# Entry
Amino acid sequence: MLAALRDRLSQARHVLVTWDGGCAPDALQHLVSEAQASVAAGGRVAVENVERLVLSAHAASSFDAVLLGLAAGSIAVHCADVLAEVARILKNGGSVLLQEPVDPRGAVVASDSILPSSFSWH
# Structure
């Protein structure tokens, strides 16, 4: 995963790393350090609790990449409101790296209500 993270962030100038109550502090610090080492020269990394993301004052289209649920121990299940906020604060052409605990018996449904027209599921 770290190689993919480095590759995705190598052109990013502003990255948001999210965390939740399940993340171990040392795991979060490791992820933030990896992100800081991977961003483009002069880039910066912001850290936000995923439960507070919708309440944050981040400007629209302000991040080149958003990392959700990547810190070891993350237990967050990202609701539609969080994903809509990520779509709002992500720059056009930006990247979302998302890891989520899932029940393999459940179905995943893509909702058009949270995707701007410039996004697509792959």
The longest helix spans residues 25-38. The mean pLDDT is 87.
